[in-house]
Amino acid sequence: MKRKYRRLWLVGLCLTGLGSAVGLSLLAFRQNVIFFVTPSGLVQQGSPGRVFRLGGLVEQGTLKRADQDGSSVAQFKVTDGVKTVEVTYRGILPDLFREGQGVVALGALDENGGFQASEVLAKHDENYMPPDVEAALKKLGYWNPATGQKPPPASTWNALLAKSKGTS
Q: For 109-140, what is each residue's pLDDT tens digit?
């Protein structure tokens, strides 16, 4: 075999190997991606057994808690204002979880159209302030809500608290 043909075979084998590696990587990536959907999107494209992140607001008056087999079970509805999805979660809900608040639930649709969550994350709005930070800012005089003053932006909290301690 001439040198020219050997080189051509080698290039062909390298391209075939590279193409196979890219194809297998894309296949593995596609199987491990978890999409974020709203209740409307989940109703349209959801298929039982496929894992999604469901995001929306917890509908007022829909939270039901129960104890089954020694573990806590919570049922609630998540809405995006258009569609609503019933969510069942077995475990302890986060401290920030409330009706009317934002939530992201990781899980899959069951055969009945309900969402079985394996993880629930509570979201808060940009106005959230941890209670200890709120108390410290009031005590140090940086914020007085009684006067209608808005709280300082979150980006300045650490600097204000450090300045008051004299560590800046």
A: 888 888 999 999 987 665 666 677 777 778 87
* H or E segment and range at residue 158: helix 157-165
- Distance between CA atoms of 59 and 151, rounded to whole angstroms? 28
Phi, psi of 103 (to 5 degrees): -145, 150
54 vs 87: CA distance, rounded Å: 9
Q: Give the number of other Cβ atoms within 10 Å of residue 105's Cβ.
A: 24
For residues 108 and 35, give the distance between their C-alpha atoms in angstroms, rounded to a whole number.
Answer: 11
Cross-strand pairs, 74: 65, 89
Q: CB atoms < 10 A from the CB of 89, how many? A: 23
Give CA–CA dist 31/166, Å, rounded. 52
pLDDT digits (tens, 9 = 90+) for 43-86: 777 677 788 888 888 988 999 998 877 788 999 999 888 889 99
Type and span of the H or E element at 131? helix 131-139
Scan for tokens 């608040």, then name that residue: 101
